Amino acid sequence: MAPAAGVGVLLTGVGKRYDIVSSFAQHATTVAADPNPLAPAQYAAHHRHSVPRIDDPGYVQALQELCERYGVGAVIPLTDLDLEVLAHARAAGRLPAFVPDPEIARATFDKYEAHLLLERLGLPSPPTVLPGERADSYPVMVKPRQGSGARSIHRADDAAAAEFFVGYVKEPTMVQRFMDGPEFSIDILCDLDGRCLNAIPRTMIESRGGESIKGTVLEDPELVDLGARVGEELGVRGPCTVQVFRDREIGLGITDVNTRFGGAFPAPMYAALPGHTYPELIVRMGGGERVEPHVGRFRAGITFTRYYWQLELDERLRPTGRDIVDPPGPPAPR
Predict the structure, then answer these.
(1) Contact predicate 176/255, CB 8 Å
(2) Is 2 buried (19+), middle (13-18) or exposed (0-12) by CB count in 10 A?
(3) DSSP string, 284-304
(4) What pLDDT is attached to residue 155?
(5) Lowest pLDDT segment from 30-39, 68-77, 303-312
(6) How far apart are CA 263 and CA 285, in angstroms?
(7) Domain span(s) for CATH 3.40.50.20 in the chain
(8) Burial of 218 (0-12, 13-18, 19+ CB in 10 A)
(9) Which CATH class is domain 100-126+179-320?
(10) What is the pTM of this model?
(11) Over pLDDT 70: what percentage of the chain?
C-alpha cells in the first residue's frame, strides 16, 4: 500500500479498529500510534509507531514528532483514554487534534458529569443520581461513572438491589433511570468550528461488550436533529457518537456521549453520500478546506453486520500476507 499524497492523518490508540484505520488509509498517508506492538489495526496504516503510554509525560511530544515527520493535519483518537490529553495539547497549539475543549472532554468521560452537562444545555438526559441519593422511580441502571464497553452495568428493580450493586461494583457509580424503549446511536461529524456537518442515526440490532456488531441506518428526523444539537451545543470537533433511548413515557434520553468514532463505524461509512464519508471529510478539513454542512443527507436503510478476523505475523512482527481476505469464487463447473 503506497502512501497517499497530501495531508497526513495520525490515529491514536488504534487497538483493533482495523476498519477505521484502513478507511483513512484510502484517502491519506495514515500513521497508527499505539503502545501495544500487537495492536492489529496498526497494520492497516502506511506507518505504525509505538508511542509511550498516555499517562507518560513524553506522550504528547512523541505525537508531535510524528506529526512533523509525516505532515499530519489531523490527529484522531480511537479511544476515550487520551481525549482530554489531546484536548489540552490542541488548546496549547501542540497538536492538530480533532477533539472538543478540555472541559467537554473531561465531562463526557464521566457519565454523571455528562448528565449534568446535558441538563445545563437543555438536552434530554434520563433522571440520574449518585449513590445515597433517592431515585425517583425503579427500575434503574447502576453504572460505573467512567465505564466503557458496557462493563459492570446492572439493572436494579428496587432500592435494595441498587444498594447491592453500588457496593458490588468496585469503582465510582451512578444510578440512572431504566429506559424502557429502543436504543439508538447517532454518529456525528463536526468541523473545527463546532458546526455539525452530518448526523446519521442507526439501530442497535445486536451489540457485544458495548460495541454494536449489527445495525441499520435510519431515516429519523428527530434523531438527526438531536444529534446535530448535541454536536453544536458541546462544541464537538471531529467525530462523536451519541447513545440514546426512546422511552415510552419520557421520550428521548441521552445515556452516553463519546467524542470519538463509535464502535459501529461501518454504518456512517456505508450511509454517507459519495465523497462525504467521515474519513474523507476529516482529511479535507485537515488540509484546511472548509466543508459545508449537509445534515440529514445520507442513505437510510443500509445495514451492516461485523465479524472478527486476524493477521499472521512473522518473528519480527511483520504481516506474512497469508491471511485470506476475499471470499472464494464460485465452484468450478463439474
Answers:
(1) yes
(2) exposed
(3) HHHTT--PPP-TT-S-TT-EE
(4) 96
(5) 303-312
(6) 23
(7) 1-99
(8) buried
(9) alpha beta
(10) 0.92
(11) 93
- Give CA–CA dist 72/22, Å, rounded: 17
Scan for cell 474523507, then name that residue. Answer: 280
Confidence label for 333 from pLDDT (cuts 50, 70 and 90)? low
The dihedral built from the CA positions of residue 50, 52, 54 and 59, taken in this order, carries a sign that is negative
CATH number assigned to the domain covering 1-99: 3.40.50.20
Q: How many CB atoms lie within 10 A of CB 284?
A: 21
Which of these, 180, 232, 218, lies nearest to 298 by C-alpha position?
218
The alpha carbon dihedral of 143, 147, 152, 153 has a sign of: positive
Grid coordinates belonging to 311: 493477521
- The cell numbers describing 148, all together, are 466503557
d(CA 269, CA 249): 33
Is residue 21 exposed (0-12), middle (13-18) or buried (19+ Cβ within 10 Å)?
Answer: buried
The angle formed by the CA atoms of residues 101, 103 and 106, to the nearest 5 degrees, is: 110
- Fill in the amino acid letter for 290: R
